[in-house]
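To: structure desk
From: M.T.
Subject: fold request, one chain
Message: Could you run this one when you get a chance? Sequence is below, nothing fancy, just the single chain.
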Amino acid sequence: MPKPKPPSPAELRARASGRRTQDGRHEVKVLPRLPSKADSNLGAGSVAFCLSLYRSRLLPAWLPLVGAVGYGLLALGSVLELFGLPWGIFFSGPGGLFELFLGGWLITRGFRTVTPSVAA
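Reply: Done. Structure tokens follow.
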């Protein structure tokens, strides 16, 4: 006799909630993926943040540019997810690596000191 398959996590959650359909099976709801719209807003806002870091010259020039490219890819991947293409997780990697590297950079080296110019 074959061994029964273990229930899926969604099935376990439905059993825990106690909801059943008319034929006695447990009801499982699948919610749409909504965070990709928020990810596109995060990507666009973070590109603007990285470009302002670039203009302020508080960090080496290459670091904010890497962040802008990474977050641009995050925004692109989330838009592709909205159209049903499963590329969002791959495009979110460069932005995440930038965040880790920026945090390490700021802990170890900090911002550059900028002396304000005095207007004559």
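Reply (cont.): The radius of gyration is 23 Å. Let me know if you need anything else for the meeting.
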